[in-house]
Amino acid sequence: MPTQEQYPQDLIHFLAASPTPFHATSYSADLLSEHGFIRLKETEDWDELGPGSYFVTRNDSSLIAFTLTQGAKACQALRMAGAHTDSPGLKVKPNAVHSHNGYVQLGVEIYGGALLAPWFDRDCSLAGRVLWQQKGDGQLYASLLDFCRPLLVIPSLAIHLDPEVNKQHSINRQSDMVPLLSLGDMPDFASLLLEQLGKQYAGFPSDAELLDFDLFLYDVQPPARLGLQEEFICSARLDNLLSCHALLQALVQVKDGKDSFLVLNDHEEVGSASASGAQGSFAQDVLARLFLPEQRRQILSRSLFVSVDNAHALHPNFSAKHEPQHAPCMQGGPVIKMNANQRYASNAVTAAQFMLLCKQAEVPYQKFVMRNDMACGSTIGPLVATALGVATVDVGVPQLAMHSVRETAAWLDGYFMLQALTVFFAANDSFLVAAAAGA
């Protein structure tokens, strides 16, 4: 496990290596493999898995990892946790490239609830997954792609042409959010992508044909520590890769780990309604392959699920946006998120269990409740609790500028969360049963 001094740089490395959910999942799979986790495939027979640690991916963008200390038949309870791999942003349209007034531009869709204004005047690149075939063999191949250099920009309109821009300005999602790619003749976008794959992979076939892609823009400015004491970390995709990082590190580094189950879902930012999202069957399918129905129901009734997704830190310039008695502060520790209308799945019992975890880890904790006159966001927590019937608590690290292209958190809160999750994955079954019984 990274020490407190090592943690910020380890997190920065993960953020920089994960510009898309596909890259985050690939990085996570490599990390798990390095720590002895065995890769499984949904298309293969698993038979009866013996003691060990395993993982499986779906759609290259979601991942489930689990540890069975004495095999599936001996499992009594699971330390369950989850986060999501996706972040709001700009996704490239299928027929993307077009020319307008001598400019070559790239059509994009808005993915999720993105803050749009911060995307203007940013140096952006392209990354994601490319599907291709080699002439003659009829096989479908998928490769990760990352241009790793500034390639696109969405320029702001000069203030001289919009004098009222600083007083009132709305952004048209269709016409204003169109990035520039080049000047002059339109390039063959398929050839551009295949050429980049040839640069990335030695021996990439020269006769490859592009079939399709899932590509996203991302800001090439790297993650950074800032502040007088370097107490902040500023980066894209803190929501929710910071949580993924903490969960993965806690799972692989904890000594004498117990039976555990970790799920990293894609598509949370767009409602989770997909085969690889939390409303899909991924977690249920894996659990059904591990345990018979009666045993599975008993295990879930004794288990606790920790849904980890970032929370809203008190903004010093907009303090009135927060419920006065429930305004999380930075470096105040993990936030337990509560909502009477079940937008978060926490209840008094599961919240108390997480408080005990924090006390055992010797880290602070705090609670968040949204103002009554503002809409409350949600997480995978209520979806998992509904689908599995498992006691669930929603927690997260406080951050600023959620859903911006550049978000801010105090890295110490991430380290506090890592400590609490490490205690969780090492907890005895009796600890879990107490939460499940009360819930």
Reconstruct the topology from this structure.
Elements: H1 7-16, H2 21-34, E1 38-39, E2 52-58, E3 62-68, E4 79-84, E5 89-100, E6 103-111, E7 124-134, E8 141-146, E9 180-183, H3 189-200, E10 208-219, E11 224-226, E12 232-235, H4 238-253, E13 260-265, H5 282-290, H6 293-301, E14 304-308, E15 311-312, E16 335-337, H7 348-361, E17 366-368, H8 381-388, E18 391-396, E19 398-400, E20 407-410, H9 411-425, H10 429-438
Parallel strand pairs: 1-2, 4-13, 4-14, 14-18, 15-19, 16-17
Antiparallel strand pairs: 2-3, 3-13, 5-6, 6-9, 7-8, 7-10, 11-12, 12-20, 16-18, 19-20
Query: How much strand content do the residues show?
Result: 25-35%
- The CATH superfamily label of the largest domain reads Zn peptidases
State the order of secondary-structure elements, H for helix, E for strand: HHEEEEEEEEEHEEEHEHHEEEHEHEEEHH
Taking the alpha carbons of the first and last residues, their distance comes to 32 Å
CATH architecture of the largest domain: 3-Layer(aba) Sandwich
| Main sheet: strand order | 1-2-3-13-4-14-18-16-17
Shape: globular
Structural class: alpha/beta
Describe the largest sheet.
Answer: 9 strands, mixed
Number of helices: 10
Say how many strands there are. Answer: 20
Oligomer: single chain
The third-level CATH topology of the largest domain is Aminopeptidase
- Please, how many domains? 2
Give me the Rg, rounded.
22 Å
Helical fraction equals 25-40%
Q: At the first level of CATH, what is the class of the largest domain?
A: Alpha Beta
Outline the low-pLDDT stretches. Answer: none
Mean pLDDT: 95
